[in-house]
Amino acid sequence: MKTVTFILLSVLIGLAVAEEPEAPLAEECNKELCKLPKCRCSSTDIPGELAPRDTPQFITLTFDDGVNIRNIETYREILYQRTNKNNCPASATFFVNHEYTDYQLVNELYNQGFEIALHSISHQTPQSYWAEATYENMMKEFGDQKRQMSHFANIPSDAIQGIRIPFLQMTGNASFQVMAATGLRYDSTWPTTSFTDPGLWPYTLDYASTQDCIVPPCPTASVPGVWVLPMISWRDLNGFPCSMVDACVFVPPHHDEEAWFKFILTNFERHYLGNRAPFGFYIHEWYISAYPGVKRALVRFLDLVNSLNDAFMVSAGEVIDWVENPVPVNEYVKKECKSFVSTSCRRTSCGPLTSTHTEMSYWMQICNICPRVYPWLENPLGE
Questions:
Q1: 108 three-class SS
Q2: Average of pLDDT values for 14-34?
Q3: Distance between CA atoms of 200 and 192, rounded to whole angstroms?
Q4: How far apart are CA 159 and CA 277, in angstroms?
Q5: Beta bridge partners of 58
Q6: Using one digit for the tens of pLDDT, what is the confidence trace for 157-211?
Q7: Model pTM greater than 0.90?
Q8: How many whole angstroms separate alpha carbon 264 and alpha carbon 285?
Q9: Which of 161, 158, 162, 155 minimizes the C-alpha distance to 342?
Q10: Strand ranges (DSSP E) for the chain?
Q11: How far is it, in rounded angstroms, from Cα 164 to Cα 42?
């Protein structure tokens, strides 16, 4: 009976969102009309008109791609049991794609207090697939992945708030309209190289963005209430911008922990000594597991952050929480720690599962009943 009800609900939801919404051209932002907590113009101004010294410095450490038995060891080693100076658990955000993901381990990360976000079902190449993606494509990749992630990892659907599109490839209006239709809250795909010093704070797409468009097409429509968390670029040793740490070209020798620690600090201080826009440490796990010197430098940096009175290692979603209702750091440290309800995982191993998109067979580690076939686009639950 539950399955029949779920299918009927899925059909009704599909009918409601299958048609691409109209795309009204966004107008220049009106600061008198666009006010927090629901609206914010794109700007380097600190939310709440706070002075930099009164503003919490947020650090968002994020990891992209699948979660599996190999990279979970790194996450357990460097992230678990961390606490910020306000005695609240330190957090991070995982942008997870579907293929080869162990959903039991995703459930573990969620129950450790980390944020689970979306990185698409297929993560397919070529990159042009994403550049040319339609509203329908994005609904299959992200709207359906929200249901898929919630189902197989047994995570509350409303806890899944963010997306990052593969290859940081923007899709114009399509992804943001899908977010609005499916209750997704923020995008963390859009790099900026122009707004780094001072940095660009998160903003909504009610009005036209002033952010530079590094990987077009960028949105032109008004999509009220959907947040952009800009990926503020680092600068490598030659001054060239890089949105992902592992994409920086001119970097210290990978074995040199001290040089890497100084490299991280140099990029951090641009934020900390500036307008305190959130400092993003965006990386893939393979990079720090391949280079122990980089990993040791990262751990030293996180230890430093966790010891500062005005810097906080938080999830991307927690940054948006603060921007919606900004308070000075002396009030922020007194707030109750973010809470969540842990979930169980009925540990199930499934396979071999036949696939509709390849001749391969798959095994899945999930938190409920095995699907009939390997889940994929147009059949995210493998029914």
A1: helix
A2: 80
A3: 8
A4: 24
A5: 312
A6: 999 999 999 999 999 999 999 999 999 999 999 999 999 999 999 999 999 999 9
A7: yes
A8: 16
A9: 155
A10: 57-64, 93-96, 115-118, 162-163, 186-187, 191-192, 203-205, 223-228, 231-232, 234-235, 241-242, 279-283, 311-313, 348-354, 361-366
A11: 19
